[in-house]
Amino acid sequence: MKKVLFASLAALLVLSSCSALKGTSSNANSVASAASAVASATSNDGMAAGRALNALYKQYKADGKYDYTNLNNALNTIQLLQSCQNLKSNAKNSSYWKNFAAGLVLGSNNLVTDQLSGVVTNSLNNLVSNVDTQKLQSAGQNATDAINTAKQTASSISNILSLFK
């Protein structure tokens, strides 16, 4: 996700510098296109989080609880945390949060409603703020690490999933 954001910003720089040679109206279009790409990446983060939440909720309903020992739950928890990790670095960026929340609604197939999207996004930000997301980036992530992370976040995730009853 960071790669997408950095690629979008790199594209913005390239487009801006190339457009500067052609004139200012072209530059404005390039900046708007790059901003749209960043918004799309943000929405994609929200959509990935929504899909993970939806999968977690389905299992939560089937089991009657959040079972962090279930490998699918652990993997969906990792996906959720990875897709939310940019929330903490964009805590004051209202555009980021708005686009993330919109993606969250779409990705969850409306499990997260527009009315709940702010509460859920805030809850996810609180959750991810208490997790070492650098561990999630390592290539050596294994099932034990996934289950340990799921166990660490079990209470918070259960609270989020209970919002959808």
Question: Which percent range describes the beta-strand content?
Answer: under 5%
Biggest sheet descriptor: none
Q: Report how far apart the termini are.
A: 30 Å
Measured on Cα atoms, how large is the radius of gyration? 18 Å
**Mean pLDDT, rounded to whole units?**
76
Shape label: globular
Throw out a few tags for this protein.
0% strand, 165 residues, mainly alpha
Write up this protein.
This protein is mainly alpha-helical. The chain is built from seven helices and no strands. It has helices spanning 2-22, 24-63, 71-89, 94-107, 114-129, 133-137, 143-161.
Please write out the topology.
Blueprint: H1 2-22, H2 24-63, H3 71-89, H4 94-107, H5 114-129, H6 133-137, H7 143-161
Helix pairs in contact: 1-2, 2-3, 2-4, 3-5, 3-7, 4-5, 5-7
